[in-house]
Amino acid sequence: MHLKLYALTEKGFVVLRDYEGPPIPKEEWMSLEYMDWKSGGDTNFAPIASALGEMECAGFWDHGKPDKDGIWTKNASICPTLVQWAKNVGANFGRVRIIKLNPNTYEETVHNLHLDDNNRLNPDGEGWVVRAWLELSDDPNSYMILREDKDDPSTESRKCSWATPESSQSIHLMR
Ligand SMILES: [Fe+2]
Fold first, then answer.
1. What is the residue-level pLDDT of the chain in tens, covering all 175 positions?
2. CA-CA distance, 158 to 175, in Å (whole number)?
3. Which domain does 96 fall in, by range?
4. What is the 74 CA–ligand 1 centroid distance (Å)?
5. Distance 45 CA to ligand 1 centre (A)
6. Residue 60 in contact with residue 47, Cβ under 8 Å?
7. Is residue 135 in some structural domain?
């Protein structure tokens, strides 16, 4: 048994209030070193914290660790505002990365739906590992899809429109 946030009981995710700043300069995430790493579509990943601080995107379990105690990579020095955002959560954190996802279709998205494995090797009695999501780009036609059951569209939730004044950011917590 893990300790879980009460707020996640109903749906397994919550939409947090919009990011309140400071603004994250575009150069911070555009200047990072990205790696060709495919997950959930045509993606490239820029690791900011990884299991051992190396520039790699593998699960922490490959190194015998639960997804906690992430170590900053060399990318971290390029994006101090993003690093501070992660620190501001005030909790132990594991992987921190930018995911650049190229445009895709609804059908591709549904095809790529998958259940993550955030709690592998997480010891019993400790806090349940969740993911926080901060949207950096403003793409009004883009939305995130979550399903309770991958094959049942009636269980689908969508988070549309990231629109906040200028930088379009929202945060999600997911199990
Ligand atoms: Fe995933």
1. 899 888 888 888 888 777 888 888 999 999 999 999 888 788 899 999 999 999 999 999 999 999 999 999 999 999 999 999 999 889 999 999 999 989 899 999 999 988 888 899 999 999 999 888 888 887 778 888 888 888 999 999 887 644 443 444 444 444 3
2. 16
3. 6-173
4. 23
5. 12
6. no
7. yes
